[in-house]
Backbone:
């Protein structure tokens, strides 16, 4: 049996470093940051359009910050054209960008939601509540009535479905054949998932990028 470490020995110094690192990782500040990140991703926002609605075009992450992609989702509607706030916030911007009417709302935690094309009577600094009407959907983004809805977290774009709750949990499937035909069962599980993905998203309408 090794003798217990004593002050001044290399073993004692190494043990002190490990202990300090563990305490720092478990500090209230670090725990609060981790909990906030999990809660923010799990939060369920209010959909900005009422029913009936459909997803016309999904979020497509660009490979780099300046590359092509689809930095949001296009939500189609055949009914109510009122645009609703997904969560409490403050109007960040309301105006025209190039030739589009754009509304942006700043939410807690460094999140900004954006909507276009939307006309609104709100101005920067107005406080709004979850579910409040913030504007009216206009035509011009798609060949059918649709809203382009984007989300940024600390300036970085991400899929609005993270906050709307529309992203299913990942399922890990085996990559090697399993005894008793397990591979064929895994393959059969993939196809229905792909089919569900196709049915959940309508064929792309002609939408502006």
Residues:
């Amino acid at each position: 049996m090794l003798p217990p470490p004593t002050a001044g020995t290399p073993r004692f110094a190494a043990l002190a470093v490990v202990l300090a690192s563990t305490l720092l990782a478990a500090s209230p500040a670090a725990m609060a940051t981790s909990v906030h990140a999990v809660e923010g991703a799990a939060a369920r926002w209010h959909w900005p359009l009422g029913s009936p609605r459909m997803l016309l075009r999904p979020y497509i992450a660009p490979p780099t910050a300046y590359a092509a992609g689809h930095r949001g989702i296009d939500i189609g509607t055949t009914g109510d054209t009122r645009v609703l706030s997904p969560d409490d916030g403050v109007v960040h911007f309301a105006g025209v960008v190039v030739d589009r009417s754009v509304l942006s709302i700043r939410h807690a935690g460094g999140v900004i939601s954006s909507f276009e094309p939307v006309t609104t009577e709100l101005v920067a600094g107005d406080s709004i509540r979850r579910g409040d009407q913030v504007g009216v959907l206009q035509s011009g983004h798609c060949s059918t009535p649709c809203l382009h809805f984007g989300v940024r977290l600390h300036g970085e774009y991400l899929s609005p479905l993270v906050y709307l709750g529309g992203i299913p949990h990942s399922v890990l499937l085996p990559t090697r054949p399993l005894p008793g035909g397990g591979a064929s069962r895994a393959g059969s599980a993939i196809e229905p998932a792909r089919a569900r993905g196709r049915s959940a998203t309508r064929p792309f309408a002609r939408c502006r990028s």
